[in-house]
Amino acid sequence: MQGKSRPPATAAEAISRMDTYVALGLIGQQEVAQALGLNVTDLTCLGHVLGAGAEPLSAGDLAERANLTTGAVTGVLNRLERAGYARRVPDPGDRRRVRVVADPAAVTRLTELYQPFYERLGQIFARYSPEETAVIADWFTQAAEAARAHLDTLRGRTAPEGTE
Length: 164
Prior knowledge:
Helix content: 55-70%
Structural class: mainly alpha
Strand order of the largest sheet: 1-3-2
Distance between the termini: 48 Å
Number of helices: 6
Oligomer: single chain
Order of helices and strands: HHEHHEEHH
Mean pLDDT: 91
């Protein structure tokens, strides 16, 4: 499909639209978490567990992906296990480590909740050319990196640019 002409937008306008999308996303995540009896952090971690697919994450990997401490992830895993959404399994290559796997019923429940939204997003992406979609995907990758760096700065892990 060919991309179509789009109205011009400044970076400030695009950021404003992104802020609207992010705000709606936060509310949506809260709604999904509530429907599952979880908090947003636990839902986010469950999403990372599901996203790992056939290569289950270690607790440390999950902490890194979720930008949490390993202690915080221990609490998350305890809650996910109690709620029946995930469980720890021994790492076959290192008995000192555990991997986290999702319960199959959790996969089904999350799919039921997210699939209608993902279908709507698929319809939106169908309006863009493969090249435009690649730009969007690249933008999200770079924006996520910027968000991680900003989060690290907020948490005092690194000094803000220009203050070193």
